[in-house]
Amino acid sequence: VLSVESNMGELCTSFSLYSRKAARLRDANDEVANILASISEGEVINKSMKIGLNDVAKKLNLLGDFRDQGVQLLDKRVVEVFAGYEGICRKAKDEIKVIFSARDKELNRQRQLDRVRERTPHNRHQITKAETELIKAKSEVSRNQKALEEQIDLFEKKKLKDIKSALLDFIKIELALHAKAVELYTQAYNNLSDIDEDQDLEDFQNVRGNFDLELRTVMASDLARLDTVKRTSFRSSSFQSIANLFST
């Protein structure tokens, strides 16, 4: 029982850690998906990049949902099974204590009978009474021992079944998750492969060309206005100088 308690405790601790790490991976996956979705939403020039990133973000979100289901199943079908052995082993140890207590009682009755026979060998009443108590104690030990043997068999059967079942569930959960991951990652790979870098670059250059044209137009307009301002300022200054000559 102590060995089973120790082994199950270690399995519970290990799978609890595994589940927590799987949960952190799920959260990191969701964070990447959110960032890609945000970049895609803000992209206004590179159309194929926008579509590709958005599709990949959706695939990662789906994968995140499967990871979340996997974490929940791990906790329910694996961690909880091993965690339950703390109480199961405690109960088994209590049952063992009962049989040892009955055994101690039997030994005490045997010693009492031996003392009675030694001290009062002719006191048949006391001897018979002690023998009766010993028989009862032996009967109790026999019953408890038989019940304990049955409990031990059930305990061992349950242990074997639970370990097998929990580990099979763990493998099935991981297989299902990895199979879905391969499917979604394959689709995401294809989505990224469909990004047309040349077309996106051409779109960028077209936008940049239009921007440059608008910029040159604006700059030319600003220069023209500046030149007009300078001429107007010069004329005003010249007229003022002539007016000053006539006034003198």
Describe the structure.
This protein is mainly alpha-helical. The protein has 2 domains: 1-195, Substrate Binding Domain Of Dnak, Chain:A, Domain 2 (Up-down Bundle); 197-233. It is built from 5 helices and no strands. The chain has helices at 2-42, 47-83, 85-119, 124-193, 197-247. α2 runs antiparallel to α4 (124-193) and α3 packs antiparallel against α4. The longest helix is centred in the middle third of the chain and has 70 residues, at 124-193. It is rod-shaped, with a radius of gyration of 44 Å. The N and C termini lie far apart (124 Å). This is BAR domain-containing protein. One of its GO terms (cellular component) is ciliary transition zone.
The percent range for helix content is over 70%
CATH topology description of the largest domain: Substrate Binding Domain Of Dnak, Chain:A, Domain 2
Question: What is the CATH architecture annotation of the largest domain?
Answer: Up-down Bundle
Shape, please? rod-shaped
In total, how many beta strands?
0
List keywords for this structure.
Substrate Binding Domain Of Dnak, Chain:A, Domain 2, mainly alpha, rod-shaped, 248 residues, CBAR/FAM92
Topology:
Layout: H1 2-42, H2 47-83, H3 85-119, H4 124-193, H5 197-247
Helix pairs in contact: 1-2, 1-3, 2-4, 3-4
Précis, in short:
With 248 residues, this protein is mainly alpha-helical. Helix content is 94%, strand content 0%.
